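Saturday, quiet lab. Running sequence design on the structure tokens for the scaffold JK sent over.
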């Protein structure tokens, strides 16, 4: 479940889903970033709806706020409701924010980190960037004190997830991050993307976790 919310929503509105539904796991973004998708508008001459181009270009001035006060509030509400934060890491500095929250008791190990790559305003989808996140997390938390997963936005979804597997991490695929199952082939649904990723895993003799195994890995 997400606490990312939408443009214009307050932190209280974003986190309200946690006490309402008490999910086992909910996203928690670890820092403020510029968040832009406006470059997409340059690729299209026509839009299906008038609001699409306007909304996309508005992100030139959009700041995705996640202040320390916001993080303290969200993690406290999650702790009160038995919800584990899936900590969204858009850049290396967010890992240091996580270390601070651990030190102050707002988070408990093992933390679950989601490395989000390829968003304009955050770290990009390259092997060098993923290694920077992975090695920094190892230094800050130690191998036994965190679990991690990786997202690659757009066409980098499968390359970044494959690299994550080989580094010992977990993966996230789905249509929120990428609409294509192959070059110029739109995915019919999330299941198609999951099936492709599972096929890649099995090429390396890896198997997806069962729900019970995942709960144990994440200390839910």
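Result came back. Writing it out in full:
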């Amino acid at each position: 479940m997400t606490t990312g919310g939408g443009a214009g929503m307050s932190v209280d509105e974003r986190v309200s889903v946690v006490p309402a539904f008490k999910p086992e796991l909910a996203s928690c973004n670890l820092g403020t970033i510029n968040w832009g998708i406006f470059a997409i508008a340059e690729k299209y001459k026509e839009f299906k709806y008038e609001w699409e181009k306007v909304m996309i270009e508005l992100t030139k001035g959009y700041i995705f706020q996640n202040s320390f006060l916001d993080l303290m509030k969200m993690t406290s509400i999650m702790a009160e409701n038995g919800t584990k934060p899936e900590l969204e890491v858009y850049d290396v500095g967010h890992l240091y924010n996580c270390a601070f929250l651990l030190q102050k008791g707002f988070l408990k190990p093992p933390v679950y980190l989601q490395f989000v790559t390829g968003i304009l305003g955050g770290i990009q989808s390259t092997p060098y960037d993923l290694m920077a996140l992975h090695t920094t997390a190892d230094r800050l938390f130690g191998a036994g004190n965190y679990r991690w997963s990786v997202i690659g936005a757009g066409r980098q979804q499968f390359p970044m997830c494959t690299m994550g597997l080989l580094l010992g991490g977990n993966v996230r695929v789905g249509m929120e991050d990428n609409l294509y199952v192959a070059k110029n082939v739109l995915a019919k649904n999330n299941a198609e993307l999951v099936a492709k990723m599972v096929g890649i895993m099995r090429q390396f003799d890896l198997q997806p976790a069962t729900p019970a195994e995942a709960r144990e890995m994440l200390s839910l």
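Notes for JK: The two ends are 14 Å apart (CA to CA). DSSP finds nine helices and nine strands in the chain. Ask whether to fix the surface positions before the next round.
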